[in-house]
Amino acid sequence: MIKSKLEQVGIFNDNLNKVKPSPIHSFDEKVSDIPNILKLTIGEPDFSVPQHIKDAALAAISADDSHYSVSAGKKTLRQAASDFLNDRYGLDYDPAEEIITTVGATEGLYTLLAAILNPDDKILIPTPAYPVYAEMTRINGGHPVFIDVSEDKFVLTPDHLREIIATEDHIKAIIITNPSNPTGVTYTAEQLKDLADVVRETNILIISDEIYSELSYDAPHVSMASILPEQTIVINGVSKSHAMTGYRIGILAGPAALMKKINMVHGFVIMTPSNPAMAAATEAFKSAESKDDTLWMKEQYKKRRDYLVEKMTKLGFEMATPSGAFYMFAKIPVDLNQNDVEFAYDLVDRQQLAVVPGSGFGPGGAGYVRISYAASLDMLETAMNRLESYCEEKRTV
Ligand code: PLP
């Protein structure tokens, strides 16, 4: 191990003083080496990438598609992404000026925040939320302002938003996650319209993270950009919808003038996305076959959701029924008499079952656990048997 004095002499950006590692990954790492552990911790599809998508990547490699592209991504991919957003959600984006291809949704979010944040700026984050939002805001010198929405069935209400806007200054943007990680809750068109009515009166940007848009179970997904396109930037991609997390292709879509500046930053950060990954994502966005792949995956997730809702409810857990993504955010029954961190570690110790403590998702998350059902029904059955044994044991003590 190399020892360096530099950490002690303040080599790092001061913004990092408040940044914490992802609670999901920290917990996952701590429990990963436990023998016989069954993990429902990580949010990534358990399906293989469909063969025709793999073939598209392989064809790009064979054709020696090995040079720099352009920072916004290949035209063919931007066209496919634009058609996809139009076909699925009725959005109308010019592929040349209003869409950027990013290295996963993650880099899109980072670059966007880097492009808009000044030192006093605040980002509104309805919580429980994906922890990355707050940390990326801090890395870029901004301040996250958490809005606890746990008392409102995990959706942000217009009244709550109005109240925050009236009390906070320097609000740059709000991040809406629809469908939500960690709760699986989705917004209806009505709810989005009501929020848009509040935001329209302001200069606030809506960052609409719709990475789970294709996984909406009970109603068609409604994009915030179909309601307030002039103040919205949509984040989407192929990671969740096409089981392509490792390919690292996402998209940002928004008004041309904003996208131009964001693309400038994006070019400095990544130069260009990877060509084989772009070829695969183009296939994912545009082929009819790929629409069927996603529908099939959605059906599997839905079966798993239904199974989990029934089992968890029987065991005394309460939850907002997840209507999208592949997470359930369940309230730990009072008679188990534990906070979420104690519960999660005790469950690992006694039954080798790992679920993520809810407090890591910000205000409103304490007392809950997040369960990822991106796992086979067999695994979920084993998990529920273990949870049942755990609950029986605790309840008979
Ligand atoms: N946004 C949300 C809400 C997520 O849950 C995730 C991954 O878990 C991401 C973005 C990251 O997506 P990507 O893998 O495309 O970077």
UniProtKB/TrEMBL annotation:
Enumerate the transmembrane spans. Answer: none
Entry's Gene Ontology molecular function annotations: pyridoxal phosphate binding; transaminase activity
Q: Which Pfam families match?
A: Aminotran_1_2
Q: Which cofactor does it need?
A: pyridoxal 5'-phosphate
State whether keyword Transit peptide applies: no
Q: What is its EC class?
A: transferase
EC number, UniProt record: 2.6.1.-
Q: Which residue intervals define the domain Aminotransferase class I/classII large in the entry?
A: 36-387
Enumerate the PROSITE patterns for this protein: AA_TRANSFER_CLASS_1
A Gene Ontology biological process in which this protein takes part is:
amino acid metabolic process
Database matches in InterPro entries: Aminotransferase_I/II_large, AspAT/PAT-like, NHTrfase_class1_PyrdxlP-BS, PyrdxlP-dep_Trfase, PyrdxlP-dep_Trfase_major, PyrdxlP-dep_Trfase_small
Q: Which keywords appear in this protein's UniProt record, sorted alphabetically?
A: Aminotransferase, Pyridoxal phosphate, Transferase
Domain of life of the native organism: Bacteria
Q: Which PANTHER family match?
A: AMINOTRANSFERASE (PTHR46383:SF4), ASPARTATE AMINOTRANSFERASE (PTHR46383)
Q: What family does this chain come from, according to its entry? A: Belongs to the class-I pyridoxal-phosphate-dependent aminotransferase family.
Q: What is this protein called?
A: Aminotransferase
- Organism of origin is Leuconostoc suionicum
Gene, per the UniProt record = patA_1
